[in-house]
Amino acid sequence: MRLLAVQPINTIIDNLQTTISREIGSREQLQQLSAVVSIQAFQAIGTRLAKIRRILNIQRYNLVFIGQVGAGKTTAICHLLNLVREVEVEKSLKSGKKVIIKKTQELLSTGAGKSTICEVVIRPAKFIC
Prior knowledge:
- The protein has helices at 9-27, 33-56, 73-80, and strands at residues 84-92, 98-106.
- By secondary structure, it is α+β, with helices and mostly antiparallel strands.
- Strand 1 and strand 2 (98-106) form a beta hairpin.
- Helix 1 runs antiparallel to helix 2.
């Protein structure tokens, strides 16, 4: 099995912007309408890439989940941020037979409501390669 190297998003954006600049430069001397249109399209793509870079470089977001007690705000946070784990639970059937079932369990406490009236700070772990 071959592992693929994952490039940081800024490197990918840099490579794309370099390619776009090269393409624009190669078309600037042309007098054709198609060259002018393609230059404008490349410039628009470059502008979008710059905006994407700014958005992705934001290190901290403030999110607020508002809803009624027991609406599932904490559960939604857990599932959106992958703060869940699979657990095996033993369950008894009406026949008396016991079976093991897999259940998804949220890592933040949930329950009868009013249990997560606090600020929750989630920080990414540092990966060691």
